[in-house]
Design brief:
By secondary structure, the protein is α+β, with helices and mostly antiparallel strands. The chain folds into two domains: about 120 residues, Fe,Mn superoxide dismutase (SOD) domain (Helix Hairpins); about 100 residues, 3-Layer(bab) Sandwich (minor pseudopilin epsh fold). About 45% of the residues lie in helices and about 15% in strands. It has eight helices and five strands; from the N terminus they run αββααααβββααα. Strands 4-3-5 form a three-stranded antiparallel β-sheet. A hairpin with a 4-residue loop joins strand 3 and strand 4. The protein is globular.
Length: about 250
Amino acid sequence: MDDHFSRRDLIKGLALFSLAIPTVGLLSTSCVQTTGREDKNTTEAHTYYTLPPLPYPYNALEPYIDSETLKIHHDKHHAGYVKKLNNALRKLEEARNYGNYAEVKFWTKEVSYNGSGHLLHSLYWESMSPNGGREPRGQLKEKIDENFGGISNFKKQFTAVANSVEGSGWGVLAYEPLGDKLIILQAEKHQDLAIWGAVPLLVCDVWEHAYYLKYQNRRIEYIKNFFNVINWETASKKYKLLRGEKKPETGT
């Protein structure tokens, strides 16, 4: 398989971002589990989802992200999205099996909302690290310089975008393959305002449950401290994978 074909197929698969289907190599495979199920009407191979473990202890991001918030956020909120996503997929399975499509609109919306919540939370944990906070390097830094005029400008724009999300949502750094550029996006709730085909590299959760115990209504303080634990190394690996890079880059 040549590099062009690999990159093309990868981007095609990642265009399903809005449907919240994790892609091997960009998200941990612990997020997804495939099982087979048979009944009298059909045999299907199902993709159900599992809660990925945190990649670090609950207190690992102190003092910027407190352990109580991290535990509740992961074990309650994220777990809830996974549970509701799987339930919606089962309801759609039942509709197919019994030919009852009256409620598929509702359950499809549940898949979009909870599936996007699961994907973004899985990426959120990977967007932070106890050893984070360093400046980006290598190809990702070059692209940030090209598209934003430097890391300082990037931080200012990302902070302003994330802080101005109306209600609950996310700040997102994404790679947009059609224009071959990095873009900063808002996502309201989990699934609104995304661009089709844009692939998130790192995200900052600005739902109140992500910061309220420690920061109360000081969202901007939380966002600024997010940069103290931001995991540029993982974002860089995702970016190189999307660009079709196979060998690790020296110094990244």
